[in-house]
Amino acid sequence: MLNPDQARERALDLVERARRAGADAADAVYGASASEGIQVRLGKLEDVERSESEHIALRVFAGRRSASIGSSDLSLAALDELAARAIDMARAAPEDAYAGLAPQDLLTTAAGPELDLVDPSEPSPEALRAMALEAEDAARAVPGVSNSDGATASAGQGVFALATSHGFSGAYGSTNHSLSASVVAGEGAAKQRDNAWRSAHHGADLPSPAEIGRLAGERAAAKLNPGRMKSGAMPVVFDPRVSGSLVGHLLGAITGSAVARRSSFLLDKLGAQIFAPGILIAEDPHIRRGLRSRPFDGEGLATRARALVEDGRLSGWLLDSASARQLGLAPTGHAARHGGGAPGVTTGNVHLAAGELTPAALMADIADGVYVTELIGQGVNGVTGDYSRGAAGFRIVDGVLAGPVAEFTVAGNLLAMFAQLTPANDLEWYRAVNVPTVRVDGMTVAGD
């Protein structure tokens, strides 16, 4: 794996080779990663996994025609062949009126903030195994837990670099540490499974293995002997484990490609009141050690903090250069590169701001409702906003949790759900999309 400086130089070199081969413009993306994971099950070593990857991708433009090609061979001869093949492909491709690099005057020239994404300490395989064993032991010690799917501890590192033919080059490295446990509670047909996991750039930011294991065990045991929900309209409270998916649907609907294709349920809602007044959904890609922190986007534009929803109103789209051209707008620094091909869109460290009520107070006036901890299936229509997903969780009776329930469906329309959404005050910052417990009134529950 190249270090960030070497990766940046290699990407610049490939861009120059493409220009010499006849490209009108080009950009190159280098990505590499290495990781090691140790899995244990029932106190014994189950699996050891080591993975490494290194890839460089080239995108070239011949007028309005473009092509992308990639390789894991970084030798000089391979790069020359890569450039020549990309040019031939581009010249044979159809024209695209929106293709092109990001506007040159918007490229970032700043060094970027110090994001502290690299942990200099690297755990040994023995240390990873000890962490996984501790997590599983804690999970299996929870009353009601009867079996284990195993626990895993892993660590890795990565490098990303981008260079363009019109003046940008940059690179950064990152590390990742993760810990998970999954166990089974109960016996026979009554068995229930659940898990807990955490991921961070720095190992010191992870909870203890015992905490992860204990949480996995408690979650599995709490699901034993689930009842059934009756059907009807009622308030639904989403646990932080699943509430982030609601904001995820919002993010998908405000991507430039969805808006440009007119395939978003938020089409023509720019500036509209889609949440209750006071609701704030924001992103900050410059949070130190944030899971989605990055100094620049996949086209060389600066990333920045911004509100996506402010006082309940939708404040803007997420645009790469191609979708921005389609919409007649400026790109917003949200371009993402995942290997070869044209940029996609991503966000950095999104959160829905906490409300004022505790989760208990948020549920206090619910005579009959449901608290959802698990969502199943993909029943969401991004064009209409219609929402219907299988779920499991706990029944709410007279304001308190009253036992596990399973095999029911929660349904509604995302526009109506957003308008009725109320956040609790239990926001935590360790996910890519951080959302507290939320309550949504007026949903339809389909059970017995």
From TrEMBL:
Domain Metalloprotease TldD/E N-terminal: 26-90
Domain Metalloprotease TldD/E C-terminal: 231-447
InterPro entries the record matches: Metalloprtase-TldD/E_C (IPR045569), Metalloprtase-TldD/E_cen_dom (IPR045570), Metalloprtase-TldD/E_N (IPR002510), PmbA (IPR047657), TldD/PmbA_N (IPR035068), TldD/PmbA_sf (IPR036059)
Every Metalloprotease TldD/E central domain range: 119-224
UniProt record similarity statement: Belongs to the peptidase U62 family.
PANTHER family (UniProt xref): METALLOPROTEASE PMBA
Protein name: TldD/PmbA family protein
UniProt source species: Novosphingobium soli
